[in-house]
Structure formats: C-alpha cells, structure tokens
User: Which sequence fits this backbone?
C-alpha cells in the first residue's frame, strides 16, 4: 500500500476547500473548520478515506476489473491523462459524451469508426484519396480523437470509475449509478459525497492536489495489476508434487538395482510438515 503522508497532502494544498457560503452540508463530517471564510478539510479523514479508496481500487483491479479515470475540467485534464497512461487505465479528459456508459453500444460504433480511420491513415489509404476527402477524414478523426482517445481500446463497460469532482461530472456519476458501476471520487466541500461509493475529501481544484490524488490511485491500479499477474502465473503454473527425503534418496541410487519398498512405521506419514 502506498505511504500516504500528511505532509504531502499539506504541501499539495489538499486541505483547502471552497468558500464557506458554497459548501454542501453533507460534507460537514469531513470539514475541520474554516479560516478567512474558506473551509478547511480534516486531513485525518482524508487519509482514512483515501486508504479505503486505494484498497478498493487495488482489490478490484486484482480481480481483473478495468478502471476508467474521468476529469474533464481544466485543472484535471493533464493529471488524469498522464496518470491513466502511466498505469494503463482508460480515461476521459476532454468532454463526457452523454450515453458513454448507458448507451455504450453507440459509443462503440464511434470507436470502431475512429479505429477504422486510423488504420486507413497508417496503411497509406489517405495518399490515394483526393485532397478534399483526406481533409474531411482528418477533421473527422481529430474531432473523435479528442473525445475518444482514452477509451479507444475499451471493449466493454469499466468495472469501476475514478473521477475528479462529482459536481462537475454529474452526468458520468448518474450513468454509473444507473448501471451499478462503483465510483470513487475526489470530493471538495461543495460536493455531495453520498453520490459516490468511495468519496475522498479534499481540494479538487488545485492542480498539485489533483495530481497527487491521481498518482495515488494510479499506484493502486499498478499494485492491483501486479497481484493479478501473480494470480495468473500461479494458476498457469503446473502442479508440483513434493518429494519426501526418502524418495529423493532412492532416486539417487543406481536405476539398475532393485528397490526395496519399506513400509512406513505405524503412525508415521510421508506428508511434509506445513
């Protein structure tokens, strides 16, 4: 498990919430107090909830589930993209297309079209097309790439979602809840934590804070994937039988000599001690 230090959270400004007049009362249990009309997040609660979210993400990925990172507001776009790429997760950081989850079959058609245009370009088909046609396809590709870049390889709905600011990503949260997809999210003092399964109280506007949260969740994904690899290796490995020391001694004898079978003494077994 990642070492989540209070110092790192403080340096990233995780404890700074919104103005007190903009708060959501449902975040009261995560608020330490206020200073200059700005709510201060209780970092002890942040650490506690962050550890829960980390464990949930790690264990889910270890079970083979996929995760989707979501952060479309300006402060979140770069951290979400970078950390999702680092851990090999799917991501959406430009614009959430309505129906991305609830109408995924239609989204898959758009993804297939984007992949088709990519293949045409890589195969040199654009070179034999007219300038007007190749320009039209390029514009179509750029438009779809902007929205679908991070989910081009997503063949099915994600097993869980991590997002920045559920207030900003209301459509994504609503679609996930409708389909029963668990969500963990960074929740600032103006958010409703009841809308997500694993809320992480903290600043969702400061780039350093968002970057820190995204990197910790990405670490959870990578750790979970490591556990998954070990499980797959264990399942694929051929079963081995432990050879008792007596048998090992027999194996070293001349194979041409007859082997005298000795019955075990009463009350003695050949099973190794565990």
Assistant:
């Amino acid at each position: 498990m990642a070492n989540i230090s209070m110092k790192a959270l403080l340096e990233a400004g995780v404890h700074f919430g919104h103005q007190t007049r903009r708060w959501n009362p449902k975040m009261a249990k995560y608020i330490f107090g206020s200073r200059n009309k700005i709510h201060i997040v209780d970092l002890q609660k942040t650490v506690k909830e962050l550890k829960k979210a980390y464990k949930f993400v790690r264990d889910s990925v270890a079970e083979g589930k996929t995760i989707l990172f979501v952060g479309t507001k300006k402060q979140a776009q770069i951290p979400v993209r970078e950390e999702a790429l680092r851990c090999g997760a799917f991501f959406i950081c430009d614009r959430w297309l309505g129906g991305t989850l609830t109408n995924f079959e239609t989204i898959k058609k758009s993804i297939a079209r984007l992949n088709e245009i990519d293949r045409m370009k890589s195969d040199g088909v654009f070179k034999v097309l007219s300038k007007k046609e190749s320009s039209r396809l390029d514009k179509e590709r750029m438009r779809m790439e902007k929205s679908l870049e991070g989910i081009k390889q997503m063949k099915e709905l994600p097993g869980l979602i991590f997002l920045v600011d559920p207030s900003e990503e209301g459509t994504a949260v609503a679609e996930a809840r409708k389909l029963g997809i668990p969500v963990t999210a960074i929740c600032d003092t103006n958010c409703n934590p009841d809308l997500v399964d694993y809320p992480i109280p903290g600043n969702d506007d400061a780039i350093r804070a968002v970057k820190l949260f995204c990197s910790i969740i990405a670490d959870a994904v990578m750790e979970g994937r490591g556990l998954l690899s070990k499980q797959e290796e264990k399942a694929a490995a051929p079963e081995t039988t432990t050879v008792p020391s007596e048998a090992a001694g027999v194996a070293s004898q001349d194979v041409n000599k007859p082997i005298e079978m000795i019955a075990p003494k009463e009350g003695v077994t050949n099973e190794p001690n565990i």
Q: What stands out?
A: The chain has two domains: 6-101+157-230, 104-152. The domain at 6-101+157-230 is CATH 3.40.50.10490 (Rossmann fold). The mean pLDDT is 87.
